[in-house]
Amino acid sequence: MRGAVWLVLIACVVVLTYLILKKNLGIGWLAVFGAHMALAAIALYIINYSGWITQVYIPINPVTMGTVTILGLPGIALLLGLKMMLFGQVV
């Protein structure tokens, strides 16, 4: 099973590298992705420590960062909604 996981990981890296080189994306997309990631971290930090929503804490980890990076502000709303529904927290 472990070998299959490594095989899939290596195949994904090879295909991703091929796509990046084929489309001549350069490193511009990496700068945009980094900026989105930084803004997502700042937004989650503000939500957690500003006191606007005191009963809800969203941990800053790769899953939440990825959600907010890809979805933006609706991602924060999604995480808040999931947190409140799954753990019975009411704002």
From TrEMBL:
This is Pro-sigmaK processing inhibitor BofA. It comes from Paenibacillus kribbensis. Keywords: Membrane, Transmembrane, Transmembrane helix. The lineage of its organism: Bacteria, Bacillati, Bacillota, Bacilli, Bacillales. The chain crosses the membrane at residues 6-21, 28-47, 59-82. It comes from the Bacteria.
